[in-house]
Amino acid sequence: MDHWFSIKLLEKETIAILVKKSGVEINPEEVTYDLLSAWINSKGIKQGILSEVIHEIAENIVTFHSPVEIAKGVLPVHGEPARLIPAAEARSLINNPENEKIDFKRLFTIPTVTFGQLIARKREASDGTPGITVFGEPIPAKRGKDVKVKNGENSVFNEENLGVYAAASGEVSYRSNCVNVYPVYKVDGDLSLKTGHIDFVGNVHVTGDVPSGFKINAQGDVRIEGVVEAAEIVAAGNIVVGGGVLGQGKGSIRCGGNFTSLYINQGNIMAGENIEAAQSILHSYCEAGKNIICISGKGNIAGGTCIAENMITANEIGNETYSKTLIYMKLQEPQPNNTFSGDGKIKELQLNLEKLQQLKDALIRQAGNSNRLDQATVSKIDNTIDQTSAKLSELYIEKTNFAIKDQINSSHVIIKGTLHPNVEISIGKYKRRVQSPFQSAKVYMEEKEIIINSL
Fold this sequence. Notes:
Mean pLDDT: 84
Protein name: Flagellar Assembly Protein A N-terminal region domain-containing protein
Largest sheet: 21 strands, mixed
Domain Flagellar Assembly Protein A N-terminal region: 26-176
Structural class: alpha/beta
Strand content: 35-45%
Shape: elongated
Number of strands: 33
Low-confidence stretches: 90-108, 333-337, 404-409
């Protein structure tokens, strides 16, 4: 079987792929279901074997097309991180069908609180669910990261009941590790020469549009019910734009928290946490410290550049006219002292194996010349080789589990619908240009190669 096939492993050894070698002719009589299954088992694969697929391969050995998935394990589901849950969740986005109009002016609300009111509660991190490789080896799940909640502006965290309480009356601004309560500056209608630029120490609420050339600077959140044109908006907290962004390739929007909008067209958006557009991101520059999400309505990302650290997900990336679209995933910096301690031992055992094999080969060559083989010595060497190989295998498994355990959720791209050609995807320093369309796919890094795998 080794002459005709090879097995490729994907997604941390949870998927086994059968690959037919090129340039070889297969004798159908020598590839039966039993023989093929036995060969697969000889490779140590025993979990999630797809027997029906192997039957089909054996019955159509001459015409079957490789690669074919023949076994599937289970990836671990890592625990949910601790987070602050608003006492009364305010929805800024809902998933609507593509043909249903989203009225942000009606949907998003501004949460206001009074002194002493419970405004949020910390939800503890959860344990994950372990996975299993196709070799039957367990893959540990990582418990979700904890969050150290800090006292925010005009808010107090009670460690006993994990509640956050308002120390003043005002409008709430939620962050990942604290909650702030700010005074509110409200503009009824559009920004104009009458209102001028806005620079405020709290939250800013504009019920109309922000035309080109105007500036808003807020230490809290910014909420705009209308459209933002080529304006400059900076917020230490979150920004919500109900009518969408028409940036004309000018202006900029920056926030330390989350940015949420109906759509983004020719905009320049930078968010410390997430960027979420309900309908589309078109010909824009978007950079998020965590995720970029575009899965409501059409959920299309086309043209421009999108950069994120954890995940980019959309219903559709690119378009039918093949507009050049750049997707870039930043790799997280390695943590100090975050290396596997057994690497030195692995190198030592590998060197010992080479020396033992060389010694065994030398004894066999000498025996060939003298017709006298010291069988006892060869047996001792074989026994030592077996013990060394077993220790080396254990260390390899430990190293694999260490890498998986340390990895919370590697950078990836999820496309629920179509991934179009002329989309260039970069993960760290590696690039891949999409040449043909894919349906419902996940893009991720595997052994210094960008993989596009069907969901």
